[in-house]
Amino acid sequence: xxxxxxxxxxxxxxxxxxxxxxxxxxxxxxxxxxxxxxxxxxxxxxxxxxxxxxxxxxxxxxxxxxxxxxxxxxxxxxxxxxxxxxxxxxxxxxxxxxxxxxxxxxxx
Length: 108
Prior knowledge:
The protein has two domains: 1-35; 36-108, no CATH class. It has helices at 5-10, 14-35, 46-49, 83-95, and strands spanning 63-67, 72-78, 99-106. Helix 4 links the parallel strand 2 and strand 3. The chain starts with a helix and ends with a strand. It has a three-stranded mixed β-sheet, covered by helices on one side. It is built from four helices and three strands; from the N terminus they run αααββαβ. It is α+β, with helices and mostly antiparallel strands and 108 residues long.
């Protein structure tokens, strides 16, 4: 007996398929929330999300994205950030199908 995923799914009952799809819909947003916005680091988890060995500090955006809910994000920009940094962060949030609902600027 092979373990081909399409064969396994075809043998599942309709209820089991519905249950599997429901579980996937619950897990995918949770995974997205854990991973954050690709390209826009969360300053609270900067050490975990930014690889200082392979990335240049010059490539680090001075605006950071913090996920508040499954679809809303707060952007915090550090003093010295540019309008280009903010625009890039907003674009990254939009690319992740999320919404910016708060923008802050830290003075240091």
